[in-house]
Structures are given as C-alpha cells and as structure tokens.
Amino acid sequence: MLPMLTGFINYGQQSIRAARYIGQSFLITLSHANRLPVTIQYPYEKLIISERFRGRIHFEFDKCIACEVCVRVCPIDLPVVDWKLQPVIRKKQLLNYSIDFGICIFCGNCVEYCPTNCLSMTEEYELATYDRHDLNYNQIALGRLPLSVTDDYAIRTIFQLPEKR
Ligand code: SF4
Ligand code: SF4
User: Fold this and answer.
1) Atom 7 of ligand 2, nearest CA residue
2) Model confidence over 54-80: pLDDT tens digits?
3) Secondary structure element (H or E) that encloses residue 59, with its range
C-alpha cells in the first residue's frame, strides 16, 4: 500500500512541476507577442546598406597607373597587378588586375590609398559561389557595377531594423 501511495505522491509532484514549466514558457511566449520582429525575410526582403559599408571592390581599369600602392598597403599583399614597361613613353602599361575575394578581409586600405581613386567599395555582399576559385575576380569582374537593392523590384527593401524594446 505504502509504495503505491508514494508513487501517487511522486506522480502528483511531477505533474505540478510540469504544469509550472508549461505556464512559465507560455508566459515567455506571451511577453514576446507584442514585440516587433528583429529579422527580415531574406532574400525576399533586403536591408538598405549603410553608406560606409565595405562590400565587393569596384575597379576602373582605365584609371589605374599600375603603381602597386594597393599591393603595398594591403595587409596580405593581395591585389595582383600585372604590367609591362613601355620604354618609348617610359611608363607602365597595365595588363591585368585581380583581387581574390576568398582571401580579402575587406579592410579598405587599397581603396583608401589608391592615388587615382580607381578602387571603391560597393554595397555588394552576395559573393557566395560553389567554387572558391570563382572568387578570384579579374579586371572585368571587378569593373562590373553592383546592382542596387532599390532597383530590384522583385524584393522589398527595408531601411532599418526596428529598435529593440
Ligand atoms: S593603387 Fe590604384 S592606381 Fe595604383 S596599382 Fe593599385 S589600383 Fe592601380
Ligand atoms: S580590402 Fe584590404 S585585404 Fe582586401 S585587397 Fe584591399 S587592402 Fe587587401
């Protein structure tokens, strides 16, 4: 008789504890019900990127003088500047230029110090590829202007996330 009674008492205590936990979790759920969402439905919604965002680098081939300042200021010597000397005019002629975004840390040093302003940081951040070698952008890929999220009518743009309350 006694073990049965103890079993009933234990069962009752466990039921009360379970009911208390369910009640607590329900109260937490209720407390979140009047809060605004802190996420957006990417990729159907996108945030407007801030003005100083450091995204994919844009490069203007015609402005580059192959001085290699961008290589010297880069913490990992990343930009590849391929040039040949033109002895007649005694100037360097740029042949190829590339940056590997699989390695770049987007510090912006190259953009900051380029004497001809042929480098700039764009708002483009969707750089995912299936092959990391595709992240090595040559001058043609670097010269492509990014699409602005505001020009894409298929998505909804969000100016900023709501403040936390
Ligand atoms: S610093 Fe500017 S101009 Fe000089 S090589 Fe780099 S991109 Fe070209
Ligand atoms: S952003 Fe920084 S890491 Fe990337 S290429 Fe320029 S200097 Fe190098």
Assistant:
1) 74
2) 999 999 999 999 999 999 999 999 999
3) strand 57-59
